[in-house]
Design brief:
The protein has 261 residues and is α/β, with parallel strands linked by helices. The chain has a single domain, classed as Rossmann fold (3-Layer(aba) Sandwich). 38% of the residues lie in helices and 22% in strands.
Length: 261
């Protein structure tokens, strides 16, 4: 497990994550993501679903429009207000995913996409809460940033040098997130009572795109949402053509709470 730091404090990190993004663009990106097909294959249509840490609510909107009984919860009041203003009927609310307002065993699935890694104290409380609210046999769709080959060999050493340079010039350094290997994600889920079923990469499906490269190297970003410039596209295509695991942004694991209803 790799601990990642940034020059942004927590408030600046939240602003950086959401302020420049539009809800419509986030929703439009959903069908381009590799995880979309797995939601359609495994999400229950006859049970309540929660996205815990929904951010701008793209998947709540996208899946809700396709007939799923899905709600979203997020700790950031600003993004919840934006969602409510954009679509007042949307079932989203402000709350802490470590203290969910749901009864034991009341949900058929919990979606957690790139959320739990931001707790510096670890994923434990949020993971236990997801397990509590799931019904026996319920599913957790869990993604976390992947400590992939590209990051280990190139991105992380470059980040470390940059942060040391900024720190030498007076900048303060703050915790950003943890990044995991595939085996670490499976171990984490088992430690909290889940049975991993499927583990796969999480990113865009197009080989000329890479959310991992986009996130780690802003100079390679293009003007279109999550797009890469020509150099970024070439790097993504080269690595993705060998293996999608080399530069993908995250790892997705679908895990089951043991038992049956």
């Amino acid at each position: 497990m790799k601990k990642i730091y940034t020059i942004r404090n927590p408030e600046a990190q939240r602003d950086h994550m959401w302020s420049a993004r539009r809800i419509e663009e986030e929703v439009a990106a959903c069908p381009r993501r590799s995880i979309e097909r797995l939601f359609f294959d495994y999400l229950p249509k006859d049970a309540s679903i929660l996205e815990a840490g929904c951010g701008l609510g793209a998947w709540v909107v996208y899946l809700g429009d396709r007939g799923y009984d899905i709600a979203g919860i997020d700790h950031d009041e600003t993004v919840v207000d934006r969602l409510k203003e954009w679509r007042p009927s949307l079932n989203v609310s402000r709350g802490d995913i470590r203290e969910l307002p749901y009864e034991d065993g009341s949900l058929g699935a919990v979606i957690s996409l790139g959320v739990m890694e931001h707790f510096e104290e670890g994923c434990g409380d949020a993971m236990r809460e997801a397990h509590r609210v799931l019904q026996p046999g319920g599913l957790l769709f869990f993604t976390a940033p992947l400590d992939n080959l590209f990051r280990r060999v190139f991105a992380h050493p470059v980040r470390s040098l940059y942060l040391k340079w900024r720190e030498s010039r007076g900048a303060s350094i703050h915790f950003a997130e943890y990044r995991f290997s595939r085996s670490e994600v499976a171990t984490l889920l088992r430690e909290h009572g889940f049975e991993p079923m499927i583990t796969t990469w999480d990113d865009f499906t197009e080989k000329t795109m890479s959310l991992g490269i986009w996130a780690d190297f802003p100079p390679l970003q293009a003007n279109d949402p999550y797009g890469l410039n020509s150099l970024g596209k070439a790097a993504a295509l080269a690595m993705n053509s060998i293996s999608r695991w080399i530069a993908c942004s995250g790892v997705l694991c679908i895990a089951r709470k043991p038992g049956s209803i």
